[in-house]
Amino acid sequence: MNRAKIAWAITGSGHYIEECLEFLLTLKNVDVYLSQAGEEVLKMYGVDLKNVHAIHSVYRDKAASAPPVGHFYKGYYHTFVMAPTTSNTIAKCVLGIADSLVTNLYSQAGKCQIPSIIYPCDIAPAMETTAPSGKVMVYPRKVDLEATDKIKTFEYTEVVESVDELIVSVKQRIKSLA
């Protein structure tokens, strides 16, 4: 079956969320998956989901078994994108924990050999990030940085460290399928 879409998950990270969404809204053939924390963060940043709904299907984390993950087995997706991604979600993925919609999506993408592109919020010992009030400095913990390094070693997983890298990687993936 032709894998025609991207599955794009948004977690509870505000790390350049507006820039990620701006790019997401330029794409076609995307299903958007929101974690519960992702929905909360979008509201904190004043993001109106009507813009996303107008272009893409949106799935929310409302069921314990995460039924939409079955789409991977039906060939609906060629790529899974998680951007931006919290350190909590990265840690769960590294440990193989699939107890939420988003972590289950990552797990199932890997089991179906679907490439994942991940943009973690914790990528350096000291870094600038975005908060609802503007730019702030954060200092990720050693454990968070170790989890980011670990997920880089996972099969079918590409980790990007900026919105620019995210854009390039997603565009390259789409181009490779054309």
Set out the fold topology.
Blueprint: E1 5-10, H1 17-24, E2 30-34, H2 36-44, H3 49-55, E3 57-60, E4 77-85, H4 87-95, H5 101-111, E5 116-120, E6 127-131, E7 134-138, H6 142-151, E8 157-159, H7 163-177
Parallel strand pairs: 1-2, 1-4, 2-3, 4-5, 5-8
Antiparallel strand pairs: 6-7
Helix pairs in contact: 4-6
Name the CATH architecture: 3-Layer(aba) Sandwich
> Roughly what is the average pLDDT, rounded to an integer?
91
Which structural category fits the helices and strands? alpha/beta
Low-pLDDT ranges = none
How many strands? 8
Instruction: Characterize the main sheet.
Output: 6 strands, parallel
Describe the fold and architecture.
This protein is an alpha/beta fold and 178 residues long. It has one domain (5-177): Rossmann fold (3-Layer(aba) Sandwich). The chain has helices at residues 17-24, 36-44, 49-55, 87-95, 101-111, 142-151, 163-177; strands at 5-10, 30-34, 57-60, 77-85, 116-120, 127-131, 134-138, 157-159. The strands form 2 sheets. It has a 6-stranded parallel β-sheet, sandwiched between helices. It has a two-stranded antiparallel sheet with strand order 6-7. Helix 4 crosses helix 6 (142-151). The longest helix has 15 residues, at 163-177. 40% of the residues are buried.
